[in-house]
Design brief:
Blueprint: H1 3-6, E1 8-18, E2 25-31, E3 38-39, E4 42-44, H2 51-63, E5 65-81, E6 85-101, E7 111-118, H3 129-140
Parallel strand pairs: 1-6
Antiparallel strand pairs: 1-4, 2-3, 2-7, 5-6
């Protein structure tokens, strides 16, 4: 039996926010150590929760902002391996708009910082592949909702 056949298979649904302000900055959150990669705020959708509600909750938890969903931009699907499982992650990327709140860092969660960063600085950031996908979806807005990156 091949090693990958021994791994548990896990399905994970996440919802993530694409929020760009009028100054051309994008709202990002950074994974806590040791990862320290920047990505769009968001995360796992709770059992029974609608993904659009999940992204609103996650943005609030990670950044302090209240948002409303503008539209679904697309879906990113990827498979990766952890030491004990093969994970199929399906990530829904929503365009969101701020409706309130103030910027703050998450305490006791999976991220340690939230910030507005210029779109031009993103290529130089240590960041997640999902951030590249998010920028692709924002720029192209493909009708089928599939990023050219995966």
């Amino acid at each position: 039996m091949a090693e990958e056949d021994k791994l548990d298979r896990v399905q994970r649904l996440g919802a993530y926010a694409a929020c760009v302000n009028e100054d051309g900055a994008i709202l990002l959150s950074r994974f806590e150590a040791p990862d320290l990669r920047w990505g769009p705020p968001g995360g796992g959708v709770d059992h029974g929760e609608h993904p659009a509600d999940g992204v609103v909750r996650e943005v609030s938890e990670e950044t302090g902002y209240d948002v409303r969903v503008v539209r679904l931009l697309g879906v990113y699907s990827n498979v990766w391996r952890s030491p004990d499982a093969e994970i199929h992650a399906t990530s829904l990327v929503y365009e969101v708009a701020l409706v309130g709140g103030t910027l703050r860092h998450e305490i006791g969660g999976s991220s340690d910082q939230a910030a507005w960063l210029s779109l031009s600085s993103v290529p130089d950031l240590h960041h997640t592949p999902l951030l590249d996908v998010t920028l692709d979806l924002l720029g192209r807005r493909p009708p089928e909702g599939r990023s050219a990156l995966g």
